[in-house]
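Notes to self, Zinc transporter ZupT:
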Amino acid sequence: MTLTYILLATLASGVLSVVVAGWLAFRYFARHLHQMISFSVGVMLSVALLHTLPEAFESQADTRVLFALLLAGLLGFFMLEKLAVLRHNHHHEHDGHGHPPGHDAHEAGRGGLAVLVGDGLHNFCDGIVIAAAFLADPMLGVLTTVTIAAHEIPQELGDFIVLVNAGFTRKRALFFNVLSSLTAVVGGVVGYALLAGSQQWLPYVLTLAASSFIYIAVADLMPQMQRRATLRDSLPQFALIVTGVAAVWLINSAFHKHVHAMEARAGAPAAQVEAAGGHRH
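result:
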C-alpha cells in the first residue's frame, strides 16, 4: 500500500505541476508567478521546520549528526547553485566572439536539452524524497508531496518558458516537460526499494530534504520577493506566506481527522486511545 501511495504522490507532484505550469504559461505566462512564489515559501518553510525536521529528530539518530547534516546540506546546495551560476556566466563570456551562422539556434537547442536533463534528475531526487517521507509517516508524505508540487509549479513554468525560447513549440515543450516529470515516479520506486529495508537511513534523508526546502525558500525564493519592495506588494506577499503555512496546517488537521475516523470504524475509538493515555497519529 505504501508503494501505491508513493506512485500516486510522485505522479501528482510531477505531472500535475507540469500541467498547471503549462496552463499558466498558455493563459497568463509569468503574470502570477510572484504570487505562487510567496505561497511556496510558506509551504516549504512550514513543512521543513514543523514536520520534516521534527520527524527526523524523533528517531534514534544522533541529534548532533543530524544538525551537522542539515548544515552540510545548506552549504552543499549553495555550492551546487554557485557552480551552476559560474558555468552560466562562463558560457555568456564567449558570446562576444564571432559565431558561425546557426550557432545561436544550435546553442538554444542545447540549452533546452540541458533544462530537460537537469529537470529529470531533479524530479528523480524529488521521488526519492517523497518515498522517504511516506516510509517515515504517511502524513509527512502527503505534506512533502504538496511542498514539492508547490515549488515545482513556478520552476516548471520557468522551464517551459526556457524551452519555448529555445525553439520548442508550446505543445512540444509541454510534452517533454511531462516526460521529464515521470522520472519522479522512477525515483519514488528506487527510493522505496532502497529505504524500505533500511529504515535507519530515513532520518538522514529527511534532514537533507528539509535542508533543500529551507535553502530554496530562503536563498532562491525570498530574494525574488525582495525585488518587490513597496508596501502594496509586501502585504500580499506576507499574506500568501501565511496562507501557505495555513494550507499545510489544514492538510495536517484533515489527515489526522481522517485517521481517527478510520480508527473508530476499525474498533479503536478515540475514547479508548485517550483512556490508554496515548494518542495515535
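- DSSP finds ten helices and no strands in the chain.
- The longest helix spans residues 231-265.
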